[in-house]
Write a structure and sequence with these properties.
It is a single chain. It is built from two helices and five strands. The protein starts with a strand and ends in a 9-residue tail after the last helix. Strands 1-2-5-4-3 form a five-stranded antiparallel beta sheet, with helices on one face. The protein is of the alpha+beta class and 95 residues long. Helix content is 21%, strand content 35%. It has helices spanning 42-47, 73-86; strands at 5-10, 16-21, 26-32, 53-60, 62-67.
């Protein structure tokens, strides 16, 4: 069973959204600047497969997703939610 999404919050940055989870995804901050850095983190690697995802921050019970300005949130949010709901919460090593 994957994560449950408690809330999706907007941020001051219109190209970033915070996905609040029901459990911890990382005990320490993990900032991943692009897909090439996500290789050892299966959840991050899956999120970077979503067209338009350009940066991730994982910490405690949330994931902040940054998108390319040219992509609409309506195209990204459902895919991010689906990945997080299917993800194995144990597959979240600290990089």
């Amino acid at each position: 069973m994957g994560f449950s999404i408690r809330e999706i919050e907007s941020t001051p940055n219109p190209n970033a959204m915070k996905f609040v989870l029901d459990q911890s995804i990382s005990a320490k901050p993990i900032s991943i600047a692009d897909a090439s850095q996500a290789g050892q983190h299966p959840i991050a690697a899956s999120l970077f497969k979503v067209d338009g995802v350009v940066r991730l921050l994982l910490l405690n019970d949330f994931v902040t997703v940054n998108k390319a300005p040219s992509i609409k949130w309506s195209a990204i949010k459902p895919k991010v939610v689906a990945i997080l709901k299917k993800a194995d919460p144990r597959a979240n090593p600290n990089l």
